[in-house]
């Protein structure tokens, strides 16, 4: 056997495949390089500008396209337009007058309304001028506006207040508000009071934007007038991507239902709607060849109007650019490549706004399209045979002589598309939403057919609305409720989405490589192995908890003004001390998301210091989200409605309840909890519930952590006078660093190597107090705070403490 010849032949085949793949779809591979560069710059905290990279890429693409395919040089046009807009997006909001902490009075135009509720609206304000001692002066930039009243696009407003910094996520798995606004070109936000906000009038935009706005308002109002509430909300989301004037609570329930069933993509205007809009024009251009230019022009115009009418998010922008690229390919009489068109759309978006790479909708949209254009055909060939895609007429004959029944081919196509889209988007969903719904494969097979008919019925219903004809309302209502019924059925257990661990960042290249192998494999068994590998990797990422830390670790999770401390032993024990304030909104709580991001599958115990809302507000919900073995609390805890609710939820989930008082020792795996206060007794304290906080030592691996709850100087003095052994390596400072806690005498008894303070940024209580910080500084104890550093991680060991923070200091 000639091993050297086989190796050389394999190398030649790999090189030929790489060269062929690059020359056929250079835009796709260069888009991946640009995305990797932006992500690397963000991970290394570099100030990046994509313009040099995109300019060099444009030159490279022009050279390659000129030598291979003339029509592929069209990305240059996108770059020339997008680069100018991209420079504006990178420099927007850099004016010194629009910096956080400045008190300003600004005026401008509302360019987009993001959400509305009873308290007002959240919108984007295009600033045009600001008030100065010399009068009004011109000013450019965008500001996130929390208007105290309802506003609409085109409103001219004046707002006064203090510009606020938009904060990034402070915990793993937390909501990154900075990214959310950066994608929309906003760097700062303004929350004016009602007295500091007033409308100045309304400004009409360009004719096409006014036409799109009126069309959007007409469709929304007509659907709400002729359809039931749920059907109207679904129809509006199908057509225009939003439901202006609808009930926000109803919209939240609908989104949660479709998300849990794995069909949330139906409520997002994306490539499906764009394909249906462009489909008739492309079909007519093929049938009536002499009038092809007319139909292409009409298609571009309708596509532009459709983009303006919808929400204009990254997903619809990607789909619109992709559709425009297909039309240009037809105009140059070239067969378009799906991946190359996808790369052109990505490059145009990133040139206009490099932060679009962080948009969740854009990530899901690109992943789904790649799965459809690359992975789905390979899966279909596996099911129907290598030539299954070439069915001749209605006879069901496949190229090559073997027969494929049309019904089987249709079923194979539906299954391939559904599986490919799910496998491509599952890692992104797990990363961002920490949920997985494998029943979505069956749900989409059931929901997509009626959803397709619903989309067409909604389009004709909206068109008939201009003639004040509502005969299609029963049909639209029936199909909408059918789609909603399927979504509700599949959102229930055991079909509904289940919480999972997010996919690690380094796992995406691995999953992409396996998916690429599946899509390019030339043999059936290679494709089956690739699908099996993808599923196995996804299940491993989603359900494998993190190994225990090598040394005892304490994590002070940033929950705002409250406490939530996770303590992990090297033997695998996980104890949560308090659960933070009550969560806002629906869906997984921020604390549960952080625990999943840390890959914590269960908790050995939750230690409750006392029953104030900033310590147990999140406990009732958390008990239903994360498996907990035991609930440790003082029998002298103050009985409040919130505490009674937590006990009821603990009984429902069969969580063991362990009352603990001074002198008790509780074994928690490889760790031990030694309770120091309060003294035994059944009656709760009447004077100050803070002084009834459960104080304890957590001991593991020869290290000690002293947990003080909200105890103040009275409890500290009592422990010192009683001669308790308070020495600890790490001190969790009591009462968020208030003035009445952390006395000098107490610090001399504890002598910690470091201290943690959990408090909210800019809290109204003034925590931590300057006097407490001075006492800690006088004792030469390093202090780390969650309000400044986000989640704080302290690793304990014989060689001292190792402190790391989620945010850069």
Q: Brief overview, please?
A:
By secondary structure, the protein is of the alpha+beta class. It contains 26 helices and 26 strands.
Layout: helices, strands, pairs:
Layout (H helix, E strand, L loop, with lengths): L2 H22 L1 H18 L7 H18 L6 H17 L11 E15 L2 E13 L2 E4 L3 E6 L7 E11 L11 H6 L5 E3 L6 E6 L4 H20 L2 H12 L7 H13 L10 H17 L4 H18 L4 H18 L6 H15 L7 H25 L6 E2 L4 E2 L7 H28 L1 E2 L3 H26 L7 H19 L6 E2 L7 H14 L3 H20 L9 E4 L8 E4 L5 E4 L12 H8 L7 E3 L5 H4 L2 H7 L4 E4 L7 H12 L3 E4 L5 E4 L2 E7 L17 E6 L2 E5 L5 H9 L8 E3 L11 H7 L3 E4 L12 H9 L4 E3 H4 L2 E6 L2 E6 L4
Parallel strand pairs: 4-6, 14-15, 15-16, 16-17, 21-22, 22-23, 23-24
Antiparallel strand pairs: 1-2, 1-5, 2-3, 2-4, 5-6, 5-7, 8-9, 10-11, 12-13, 12-25, 13-14, 18-19, 19-20, 20-21, 25-26
Descriptive account of the structure:
This protein is of the alpha+beta class and 809 residues long. Helices cover 48% and strands 16% of the residues. The chain is globular, with a radius of gyration of 30 Å. The strands form 5 sheets. The chain has an 8-stranded mixed β-sheet, with no helix packed on it. Strands 18-19-20-21-22-23-24 form a 7-stranded mixed β-sheet. The protein has a 5-stranded mixed barrel with strand order 1-2-4-6-5. The chain has 26 helices and 26 strands.
Largest sheet: 8 strands, mixed
Roughly how much helix do the residues carry, as a percent range?
A: 40-55%
Summarize model confidence as the mean pLDDT: 84
**Into which percentage range does the β-strand content fall?**
15-25%
Give me the Rg, rounded. Answer: 30 Å
The quaternary state of the protein chains shown equals: single chain
**SS-derived structural category:** alpha+beta
In the sheet with the most strands, the strands line up as 17-16-15-14-13-12-25-26
Number of H/I helices: 26
Spatial separation of the terminal alpha carbons: 62 Å
What's the total count of β strands?
26
In the predicted model, the low-confidence regions spanning at least 5 consecutive residues are: 67-74, 388-402
Shape: globular
């Amino acid at each position: 056997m000639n091993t050297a010849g086989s190796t050389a032949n394999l190398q030649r085949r790999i090189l030929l495949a790489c060269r062929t793949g690059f020359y056929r779809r250079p835009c796709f591979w260069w888009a991946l390089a640009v995305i990797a560069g932006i992500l690397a710059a963000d991970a290394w905290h570099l100030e990046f500008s994509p313009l040099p990279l995109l300019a060099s890429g444009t030159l490279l693409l022009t050279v390659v396209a000129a030598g291979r395919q003339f029509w592929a040089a069209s990305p240059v046009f996108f770059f020339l337009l997008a680069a100018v807009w991209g420079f504006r997006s990178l420099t927007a909001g850099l004016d010194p007058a629009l910096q956080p902490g400045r008190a300003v009075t600004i005026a401008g135009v509302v360019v987009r309304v993001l959400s509305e509720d009873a308290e007002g609206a959240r919108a984007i304000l295009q600033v045009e001028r600001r008030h100065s001692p010399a009068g009004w002066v011109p000013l450019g930039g965008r500001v996130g506006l929390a208007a105290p009243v309802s506003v609409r696009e085109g409103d001219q407003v004046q707002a006064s207040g203090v510009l606020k910094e938009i904060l990034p996520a402070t915990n793993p798995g937390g909501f990154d508000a900075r990214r959310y606004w950066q994608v929309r070109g906003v760097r700062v936000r303004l929350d004016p009071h009602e007295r500091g906000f007033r409308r100045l009038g309304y400004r009409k935009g360009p004719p096409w934007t006014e036409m799109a706005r009126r069309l959007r308002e007409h469709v929304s109002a007509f659907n709400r007038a002729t359809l039931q509430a749920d059907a109207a909300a679904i129809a509006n989301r199908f057509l225009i991507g939003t439901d202006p004037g609808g009930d926000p609570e109803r919209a939240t329930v609908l989104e949660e239902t479709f998300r849990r069933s794995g069909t949330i993509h139906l409520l997002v205007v994306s490539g499906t709607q764009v394909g249906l809009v462009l489909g008739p024009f492309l079909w007519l251009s093929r049938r009536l060849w002499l009038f092809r230019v007319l139909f292409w022009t009409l298609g571009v115009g309708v596509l532009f109007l459709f983009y303006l009418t919808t929400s204009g998010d990254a997903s619809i922008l990607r789909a619109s650019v992709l559709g425009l690229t297909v039309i240009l390919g037809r105009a140059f009489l070239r067969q378009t490549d799906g991946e190359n068109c996808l790369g052109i759309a990505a490059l145009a978006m990133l040139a206009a706004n490099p932060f679009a790479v962080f948009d969740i909708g854009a990530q899901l949209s690109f992943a789904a399209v790649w799965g459809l254009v690359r992975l789905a055909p390979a899966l279909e060939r596996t099911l129907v045979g290598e030539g299954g895609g070439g069915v001749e007429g209605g006879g069901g004959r496949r190229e090559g002589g073997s027969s494929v029944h049309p019904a089987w081919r249709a079923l194979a196509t539906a299954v391939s598309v559904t599986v490919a889209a799910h496998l491509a988007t599952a890692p992104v969903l797990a990363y961002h939403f920490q949920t997985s719904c494998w029943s979505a494969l069956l749900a989409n097979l059931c929901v997509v057919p009626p959803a397709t008919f619903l989309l067409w019925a909604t389009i004709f219903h909206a068109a008939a609305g201009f003639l004040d004809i509502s005969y299609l309302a029963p049909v639209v209502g029936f199909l909408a409720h059918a789609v909603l019924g399927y979504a509700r059925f599949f959102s229930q257990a055991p079909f509904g989405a289940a919480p999972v661990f997010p996919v690690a960042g380094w796992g995406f290249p691995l999953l992409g490589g396996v998916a690429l192998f599946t899509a390019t494999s030339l043999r059936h068994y290679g494709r089956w192995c690739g699908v099996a590998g993808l599923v196995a990797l996804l299940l491993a990422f989603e359900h494998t908890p993190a190994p225990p830390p090598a040394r005892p670790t304490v994590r002070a999770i940033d929950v705002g003004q409250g406490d939530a401390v996770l303590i992990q032993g090297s033997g695998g024990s996980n104890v949560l001390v308090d659960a933070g304030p009550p969560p806002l909104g629906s869906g997984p709580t921020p604390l549960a998301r952080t625990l999943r991001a840390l890959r914590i599958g269960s908790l050995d115990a939750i230690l409750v210091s006392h029953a104030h809302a900033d310590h147990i507000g999140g406990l009732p919900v958390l008990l239903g989200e994360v498996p907990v073995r035991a609930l440790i609390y003082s029998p002298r805890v103050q009985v409040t409605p919130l505490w009674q609710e937590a006990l009821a939820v603990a009984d429902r989930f069969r969580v063991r309840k362990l009352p603990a008082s001074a002198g008790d020792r509780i074994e928690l795996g490889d760790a031990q909890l030694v309770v120091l206060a309060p003294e035994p007794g059944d009656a709760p304290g009447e004077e100050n519930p803070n002084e009834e906080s459960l104080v304890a030592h957590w001991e593991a691996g020869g290290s000690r952590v002293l947990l003080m709850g909200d105890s103040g100087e009275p409890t500290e003095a009592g422990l010192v006078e009683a001669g308790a052994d308070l020495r600890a390596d790490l001190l969790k400072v009591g009462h968020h660093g208030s003035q009445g806690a952390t006395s000098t005498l107490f610090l001399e008894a504890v002598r910690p190597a470091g201290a943690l303070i959990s408090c909210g940024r800019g809290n109204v209580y003034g925590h931590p107090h300057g006097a407490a910080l001075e006492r800690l500084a006088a004792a030469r104890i390093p202090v780390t705070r969650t309000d400044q550093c986000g989640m704080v991680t302290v690793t304990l060991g014989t060689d001292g403490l190792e402190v790391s923070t989620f945010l850069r200091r």
